[in-house]
Amino acid sequence: MNATTIAEGVRRGELSARTLAEESLRSIRARNDELNVFLHVDESGAMAAAERVDDTVSRGLDPGRLAGVPIALKDNLCQVGVPTTCSSKILEGWRPPYSATVVDRLLEAGAVPMGKTNLDEFAMGSSTETSAFGPTRNPLDPTRVPGGSSGGSAAAVAAAMTPLALGSDTGGSIRQPAALCGIVGVKPTYGLVSRYGLIAFASSLDQIGPFATNVADAALLLEVIAGHDPMDSTSLPEPAPDLVAHLDDGVAGRRVGLVRELIDGADDEIVESVQRAADVLRAAGATIVELSIPELHLGLSAYYLIAPAEASSNLARYDGVRYGLRVDADDVTAMNEVTRTAGFGAEVKRRIMLGTYALSAGYYDAYYGQALKVRTQMIDAFRRAYRQVDLLVGATTPSVAFTFGSKTNDPMAMYLSDVFTIPTNLAGEAALSVPFGRGEANLPIGVQLLGPGRSEAQLFAAARVLEAVERGS
Ligand code: GLN
After folding, report:
1. pLDDT by residue (tens digit) across 231-286?
2. Residue 159: how many CA atoms within 13 Å on its side-chain side?
3. Which residues of 283-312 are buried (b: 16+ CB within 10 A; e: fewer)?
4. Class of domain 3-239
5. How far, in Å, CA of 76 to CA of 84, rounded?
6. Which residues line ligand 1 (CB under 6 A)?
7. pLDDT at 167 over 90
8. Most exposed residue of 51, 131, 181, 208, measured as fewest CB within 10 angstroms of its CB?
């Protein structure tokens, strides 16, 4: 059952939130040992939330728009009292004293958080293989990765453990795993969703967003979590947009750019899927314009300076004093050092070193400063494109889900997994991935739709057009 149907049933008193939570727990237990999706299952918290919803319904009150819908939370989102690790040993045992704004909004809307899902350590990765607690397996083919960094959240939805999940997307970490797991994933406009209580990786790029089995559920979830939050200084000063109301707007009269740089280098079946998606949009009344945006090729190099630079600063707080792990030593400096040496994994250390180097006095202009200029070029390039067209279409990923270990020894190969998703984060704009077509080994392909800031309603409407064809309805 999808989230929209569940919430309607619970609100009408025809479905019990408690029963739904029990069913979700059963499906988590059935496959979690095999797939390693949840790092922590919050059974008592989930049952208490579900009972509150049933109680609200029985008193004739409105339990909210996500009443009784089980949801999985990426383990970089704080929920008061619930262990939160970022898949890092450095946070092991830490329980946040507060909840992320998105978690509060979910609970107000009657959703039932089931627990915390696995990710690449501190969201740095594209396969969930850098987790300190072992990789997550792709439910569609357990010999392959689910993508990352929000691999656990994507797998929870793909394995039907929960109909919804939240992830975070700094360079592709929602869209890429959504594509690899055959579900819908959305990277909202920067500032649309509050980052308060999201453990920071690269603050100017991070956004929280939904995973769902279908477009309508993703729109509903985004409406619930979006909207201004005074606790996040980068939060847009406006209420959540109407998304569900526009789902059936279609694409008639829209201009859609098919972007060469967003398919270059992708597997043949993926290029074909994107072209077929463009044909479907054209048949639904859109005008397709073939475009080239050469600046997009610069995205990866700029991202791998800006994101590590911000991460090196954000991760300075893990000092053995304030959170989680402490390894004792003779003095404070030595304690900081041995704690960080023991607590962080190799990829996190690589990023801290890269970022510290890029920000260091002699190199700041040559690396970080240069990357910021490229970022501005990227913003300008998108702006020019959006003078010609309303939306863009391209691939989400260059390949379908890959096998374990195939990219772990070559950081560049892993980084290239996000070549099509990173530009949106640098520009602070909106994009989503919707399943469309199948590739190697019959694995799902994600088509990416991109738009300017605040274009979510248009993106969902276009994604619905593709979804209807994909499902043959
Ligand atoms: N894979 C990219 C990285 O490793 C993006 C990660 C993300 O979006 N959190 O940085």
Report:
1. 999 999 999 999 999 999 999 999 999 999 999 999 999 999 999 999 999 999 99
2. 32
3. ebebebeebebebbebbbebbbbbbbbbbb
4. alpha beta
5. 6
6. 123-126, 149, 169-173, 201, 307, 418
7. yes
8. 51
As given in the structure block, the two tokens for residue 31 are 């496959």
Task: Give the sign of the dihedral formed by CA 344, CA 323, CA 326, CA 331.
Answer: positive
Shortest-distance atom of ligand 1 to CA 307: 10
CATH number belonging to the domain at 255-296+377-472, selected among 3.20.10.10, 3.40.50.2000, 3.40.718.10, 3.90.1300.10 = 3.90.1300.10
Location of each CATH 3.90.1300.10 domain in the chain: 3-239, 255-296+377-472
Is the entire prediction scored with pTM above 0.90?
yes
Q: Could you tell me whether strands 112-117 and 38-41 are parallel, antiparallel, or unpaired per DSSP bridges?
A: antiparallel
Instruction: Give the contacts of 396 (CB within 8 A, at least 6 positions apart).
Output: 172, 175, 176, 178, 179, 420, 421, 433, 445, 446, 447, 448
Helix H or strand E segment including 306: helix 299-314
Per the annotation, the verdict on 74 as an active-site residue is yes
173 is catalytic: yes
Q: What is the distance in angstroms between the CA of the first residue and the CA of the last residue of the chain?
A: 18
Residue nearest to atom 5 of ligand 1 (CA): 171
- The strand order across the sheet containing 391-395 reads 38-41, 112-117, 70-74, 164-169, 207-212, 184-187, 430-438, 444-451, 391-395, 255-259, 287-291
pLDDT tens, residue by residue, 288-330: 999 999 999 999 999 999 999 999 999 999 999 999 999 999 9
Residue 53 has pLDDT above 80, yes or no: yes
| Phi and psi angles of residue 54, each rounded to the nearest 5 degrees, phi first | -60, -40
Beta bridge partners of 41: 115
What's the CA-to-centroid distance between 427 and ligand 1, angstroms? 15
Both tokens assigned to 302: 């700029």
Average pLDDT over residues 192-200: 98
